[in-house]
Structure of Penicillinase repressor:
Amino acid sequence: MQLSKTEEQLMQYLWKRKKAFLKDLLEDFPEPKPATTTVATLLKRISDKGFIEYKLFGKSREYFPLIKKTDYFSKHVNGLIKNFFNNSASQFASFFTKETNLSTEELEELKKVIDSQIKKQQK
């Protein structure tokens, strides 16, 4: 299951805070802030999708994520590779490195990350 763009934005705030009440999340939005009912609706939808849960404190709900940010984006990227790059990580990497205008330094850093991961997997 996937989040909409606005649901994803709200999740970003919740991942950053780790747990929050609706009023806290509302503070994170830039001006003009959405209506409280809009954020409440988004929280309900995200909860129904199984991404968040809450604890009741009287009438207030403290929300917290059920899925880690890295897990969510890992599935997102894997879906992208599967759907747009014929399930080929090398096609994705080729596209990514050519189309994002990375500097030589950034490409070198990526190479180090990849080399490090190769060493880990060879052990």
The first strand starts at residue 20 and ends at 21. The chain has a mean pLDDT of 91. The two ends are 34 Å apart (CA to CA).
